[in-house]
């Protein structure tokens, strides 16, 4: 929180078109990799990790929209939790590391790139304390090319002109 309080848990969504992945970065908390390409509109909705206490009520009983929880193993995200955060003063950016939650590692027989080989996600972000004064009030993210086996690198920062989300 001391490194970038304005960006804490700010959600950024980006895509890896080559592997057909949707990546959601909640800076300072977690990164999720989904198999498939999902719209930003769907990804912005919180995933339903709870049920209504009244047994006969359905999802419309909530005061907000939620993303359905899929029982299909192939549609469950791979979740990486924050393990380390440091400030790189030479580059004027934070470097955060997220490691795979072992419970996320589900087998899937789909013929698409498998995120289970990714053990760690590195996120690079320049702090912007004035993000709430700008539009859009969220950061954009971009997947970076990396030579490291089992690692995905992501740049999170101010959106470029005309950029809201980027397909890569």
End-to-end gap: 30 Å
Task: Give me the strand/helix succession.
Answer: EEEHEEEEE
| Total helical segments | 1
Major β-sheet strand ordering:
1-2-3-4-5-6-8-7
Question: What is the residue-mean pLDDT, rounded to a whole number?
Answer: 83
Give the assembly state of these chains: single chain
CATH class descriptor name: Mainly Beta
Question: Residue ranges: pLDDT <50 for 5 or more in a row?
Answer: none
Question: Could you say what the CATH architecture is?
Answer: Distorted Sandwich
Based on CA inertia axes, which overall geometry fits? globular
Round the Cα radius of gyration to an integer and report it.
Answer: 17 Å
Characteristic terms for this protein:
1 helix, mainly beta, Cation-dependent Mannose-6-phosphate Receptor, Chain A, eight-stranded mixed sheet, 168 residues
What does the model show?
- The protein is mainly beta.
- It has one domain: Distorted Sandwich (Cation-dependent Mannose-6-phosphate Receptor, Chain A), CATH 2.70.130.10.
- It is 3% helix and 33% strand.
- It is built from one helix and eight strands.
- An eight-stranded mixed beta sheet has the order 1-2-3-4-5-6-8-7.
- It is globular and about 55 Å long.
- The mean pLDDT is 83.
- InterPro entries: DUF604.
